[in-house]
Amino acid sequence: MSAVVVVGAGIVGAACAHSLSAAGAEVIVLDRGSVASGTTSRGEGNILVSDKEPGAELELARLSRDAWLEVGEELGRETLELEEKGGVVVAASPEALDALSSFAAAQRSAGVTALDVAEPRELEPHLRAGLAGGVLYPEDMQVQPVLAAAAMLEAAQRRGARFVAGADVVAGVRDASGRLTGVRTSAGEVIGADAVVNAAGTWGAQVSERLGGPVPVLPRRGFILVTEPLPPMVRHKVYSADYVANVSSSEAGLETSCVVEGTRGGTILIGASRERVGFDTTLDVDVVSTLASQATALFPFLERVNLLRVYRGFRPYCPDHLPVIGPDPRVPGLFHACGHEGAGIGLAPGTGRLIAHHVLGGGPLAPEVAARFTALLPDRFVQEA
Amino acid sequence: MPLSDLPPDGVVIVGAGPAGLACAATLLDQGDTFVTVLDAGSGAGGQYWRQPAPPADSSDPGALRPDAMRGLHHDLGTFAELRSRLEAGQAAGRASLLTDHHVWTVVAAEGGHVVHAVDRSGGPGRERAVELRARHLVIATGAHDRSLPFPGWDLPGVLTAGGLQALLKAGDVALGPRVAVGGTGPFLLPVAAGLADRGATVVGVFEANSPTRWLRELRAVAANRTKLAEGAGYAATLLRRRVPVRTRTMIVEAHGRERVEAVTVARLDASGHPRRDTHRRIEVDAVGVGWGFSPQLDLAVTLGCALTADASGTPVVQVDEWQRTSRSGVSAAGEACGVGGAALAVAEGRLAARGIVGASASDAETAGLREEVARLRAFAAAMHRAHPVPAGWADALRSETVVCRCEEVSAGTVRHAIAERGATDARQVKQLTRAGMGWCQGRVCGHAVELLAGGGSGSPAERLVSTPLPLGVLASRKSRAM
Amino acid sequence: MSTFRFDDVSIPFRDGQSVGAALVAQGILSWRTTRLEGRPRGLFCGIGICFDCLVTVDGVPSQRACLVRARDGLDVTTQEGSGYAAE
Ligand SMILES: Cc1cc2nc3c(=O)[nH]c(=O)nc-3n(C[C@H](O)[C@H](O)[C@H](O)COP(=O)(O)OP(=O)(O)OC[C@H]3O[C@@H](n4cnc5c(N)ncnc54)[C@H](O)[C@@H]3O)c2cc1C
Ligand code: FES
């Protein structure tokens, strides 16, 4: 049996612990804070296939979607607030609809269910009139990220995993051959391991450096608006087609295109902007106002609805906008599972399985399935450097 | 008022209570900058000098008049003087008082800050977004009642102590006829005295702490004789009105179906736990409970101002000898720097103003103000030490007692998140249970949840939006700019 | 004396009073029910902090009765749950 240290108790670390413990590993999860104290508590909980173009990330999203349903079976959908609500992408103009249609066509050929919708108001009666059209993605889902991370971590603990909150990992411990044999915390404690998983999210670059195998992970700021509680008025995740362009964009500036969705608690979430401004925590009123004006343009009834809260988070992104998942070729015993940008919630359980596969050499995934994710391996950053 | 109408180098004061008004008056006396005072209320005065809204028709004989409220206020002379100085400033084109303007956020900008407010003066559905530039910003946002849950506390007719007083001061309504006042702190006395004076039957003031705790604070008391006289005045009223004051006693439950009908009170044992064998049921029509006050820190936290803890461990804004915060161009005065009463707030407001105009540290007035602030702060610290929340405050909570009133989260759910799911502070409890996620954003339940989690007052909640505003109002900012 | 409507009754008020103060003066202590359990609520903090006193004013839901100033002819209605009709 191998001992695995997972650094980070966000959604990704929790999913890794969940999969690793299921496959029989002895797991210790370390977090400098508590469960979900990083970006996981700052996101929206969208589990989307709709916003991904064909490629490794879409494959991971599809793997994760199935995995989410299994997690829901195991731990109870209620516990996670997992809902198969579906996503509706709407286009304001005929040009936008053309772009959306060809995007959806490519997704269909990769196995995604995407249904053309002539009148989006038949699905969402409170949308504004006069939209050019839309696409329904029935596979899109939603989860409450903190509840999901806590539940997966608790399930791992029931299988014998340990969780240590307040443990900041400051260095790796290596043997003479250079193999990672454990980590050292700021309290000076050394925790031995056969494998160490870097699931430190937006702080993944820092942790990777401390463990001797640096990978580039940067922060991308996002604001989310939360309204007063309402009866169900928005049934799906609704967003405008420009979102598709923004997600994959690598421009440095601000991009906003709002996603509007209802929650179990009755509030409506409007998110999220994307900016590269480092870890700047200040509120940007213009960004927040832009999100408000986009949301009210989609759903006019929102004009009178009160904004109660704005929160922000820093998405972990790699320069090529793909997560980094797999063994570090430079440091035996080190595995990375970070850089999921705006999709870490959705991609978490697939990542957990992939990591269990890499760490335990086999595990839950068939080799031909694992082979679809070579584009996510850390090697791409090592070769570059 | 559109942005361009305001001089770009003005001082903007958030809050027209004692601290904000004193700051404005001193700025107008000593400096030559333009002063803007914003307040969410319908007039100047804040919580302490709370007034009815100015009458729409001044000839209406039925309208409420501030003078009618005279007996309820302390030191109204100071209020009248400060307000008239602000009015003179307004008349001279040097000052502006924006009431019904709630600041929802503040952002650092080139050469100062931009203050974002929502103007509610047009009434429901007609709110407007307003922005002001501030060369210097003064946070004088005061405090609100601190509440702790108990069974029945969500029944209609159970209010905070401050809520009862606000009804009296601003509405001339004495809730009753039979009313119980409970919690801790000297503030309970004026609330009870005011109600009794207006004809309510105050069935008792139930103070959780013992007056003997003040014996350890004689130095602070001796240095603040006016405070003593003020307290003695209220005590005399209560005596005259035959209002029983029960110490080491707390209200442990409110009873009723559609509204409060009775309370149960209990004596506290030596370690601060209510004794079951002392339960006594009293019929009432209304209840006011207050456990001191929580400073309103939203703007300061959003700006990243350094905080410190007061004598009770409550986070407050950290200020230097000129009331300047750790952020340049931002001062704070009054309860935001620690709850201590109106006289302290006035002194701090004046000191903040002198700091802004660059007064000399060695002039007699500054030295006098500093001495006054130190003396009153010492008294405030003594008060915090003499009136802690008793250890057994939560003994009476049942598992079904509501803790978060907005999201209707029960004590049992909160305790489960702490005991079974490892939550150690209010933020984690919130994310696991929704306690604190509703309309009030944890302003009411936050302290209790923090105490239940064993954390006491750790780091305060971050609220980037300090008051709700319609999305359309926010969106209109964008269309205007484009 | 000036009055406003509260559901089907006419509520007198003194100029300067809030809607909440005027209702309480008439012995009306609650004017809202909660979203989840339908519990009655009225004033709690009295100063705009707690949002327990929400009421629908002139058709606009979720106004704080303790802050909204009473005006002649105002149309105030009990608020159930969120104050918005479900679809
Ligand atoms: C505004 C916004 C909206 C979003 N919306 C969505 C969405 O709808 N759907 C979706 O799928 N994703 C969304 N995301 C992205 C998603 O939140 C992230 O991709 C995801 O949370 C990343 O999870 P993680 O576990 O990798 O990181 P985190 O949750 O940040 O976890 C990393 C953990 O590592 C710990 N850590 C760091 N350094 C150390 C150390 N030295 N020692 C010990 N512990 C350490 C941290 O304390 C933290 O708990 C959104 C993000 C933002 C900002
Ligand atoms: S009574 Fe608390 S907001 Fe009105």
From TrEMBL, chain A:
Q: Which Gene3D superfamilies match?
A: D-Amino Acid Oxidase, subunit A, domain 2 (3.30.9.10), FAD/NAD(P)-binding domain (3.50.50.60)
**What does the UniProt keyword field contain?**
Oxidoreductase
Check the record and name the InterPro entries matching this protein.
FAD-dep_OxRdtase, FAD/NAD-bd_sf
Question: What Pfam families does the annotation carry?
Answer: DAO
Residue stretches making up the FAD dependent oxidoreductase domain: 4-357
Q: Does the keyword Oxidoreductase apply?
A: yes
Q: What is this protein called?
A: FAD-binding oxidoreductase
Species in which this protein is naturally found: Intrasporangium calvum
From TrEMBL, chain B:
Give the FAD/NAD(P)-binding domain ranges: 11-348
**Gene3D superfamilies in UniProt:** BFD-like [2Fe-2S]-binding domain, FAD/NAD(P)-binding domain
The UniProt entry, under InterPro entries, shows: BFD-like_2Fe2S-bd_dom (IPR007419), BFD-like_2Fe2S-bd_dom_sf (IPR041854), FAD/NAD-bd_sf (IPR036188), FAD/NAD-binding_dom (IPR023753), Metab_Enz_Cyan_OpOx_G3PDH (IPR051691), Opine_Oxase_asu/HCN_bsu (IPR017224)
Question: What keywords does the record list, in alphabetical order?
Answer: Oxidoreductase
Task: Using the UniProt annotation, give all residue ranges assigned to the region (Disordered).
Answer: 45-65
Spell out the SUPFAM superfamilies in the cross-references. Answer: FAD/NAD(P)-binding domain
BFD-like [2Fe-2S]-binding domain boundaries = 402-450
Output the superkingdom of the source species.
Answer: Bacteria
Concerning PANTHER family, the annotation shows:
ANAEROBIC GLYCEROL-3-PHOSPHATE DEHYDROGENASE SUBUNIT B
Name of the featured protein: NAD(P)/FAD-dependent oxidoreductase
TrEMBL record, chain C:
Q: Keywords assigned by UniProt?
A: Oxidoreductase
**A Pfam family assignment:** Fer2_4
Record has Oxidoreductase as a keyword: yes
- Matching SUPFAM superfamilies: 2Fe-2S ferredoxin-like
Q: Which domain of life is it from?
A: Bacteria
- The yes or no answer to whether the keyword Oxidoreductase is present is yes
Q: Under what name is this protein listed?
A: (2Fe-2S)-binding protein
Native organism is: Intrasporangium calvum
Lineage summary: Bacteria, Bacillati, Actinomycetota, Actinomycetes, Micrococcales
